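Task card 7
Instruction: Convert sequence to structure tokens.
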Amino acid sequence: MTYGTDYHYIPVTSIQSGSFELIAPEVWTLTVQIVNVVFIGARDTNRWILVDAGMPGSADTILKAVNERFGEGSRPAAILLTHGHFDHVGSIVELAGRWDVPVMAHPQELPYLTGRLAYPPGDPTVSSGLLAQLSPWYPNEPIDLGSRVSALPEDGSIPGMPGWEWIHTPGHTPGHVSLFREADRVLIAGDAFVTVKQESLYSVFTQELEIGGPPQYFTMNWQEASDSVKKLEALQPTVAVTGHGKPAYKEWLGVHLKRLADEFERIAVPGRGD
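Output:
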């Protein structure tokens, strides 16, 4: 299944995708409209993975970036999904089919990736921001990857990626995962928290750095989301790339992530702020 064209009306299509950015050894991020995709692995081999698959219609952008960074015809060993929302799986069907590679996700996310369960629609009551107000029209239906998608290993390992582990960080969705490399404490947080106020079109355009909770209009369980942020803060990451917003580093990251963990209800939960 592929998504329809309803998403095209969302007034963010004029946002320019960012450049390929190296944020840590063998960790690259690419902004595709309003969302980040991540590439983990060495440039001179095919031993790399793609984390998330961007917005609907972004396959050509991702493929062009891959050819430029990893070489013409390069393909990943696998695609790992932090979760199944439309802006993270928008090009998964085309990319997985083009590359003929497996897709991995948390077991609790599989119903949303195999056509069995739809996410709740976006909730416009969480914020007066334009992107929140438009959220009921965002695609929420499941995609169906069939047998191409499988569950991540129960032990937290990531096949073919030594030194990395996946961490269950539910709340935004039941099977949301984040990735962590302990050697240098690099965190790929997905939407467990983000570094831009995703509900606001102005903030998304300006990309002002601000650590907040997961996108409010799609978050399903706020207590789990709070627990997940506390879990990630306890890892003391030195760099974090999130599903939305710019990467965050070192002291700034530590101070603001701790503040979010300590004051999550006030900062992140709709209707609980100052």
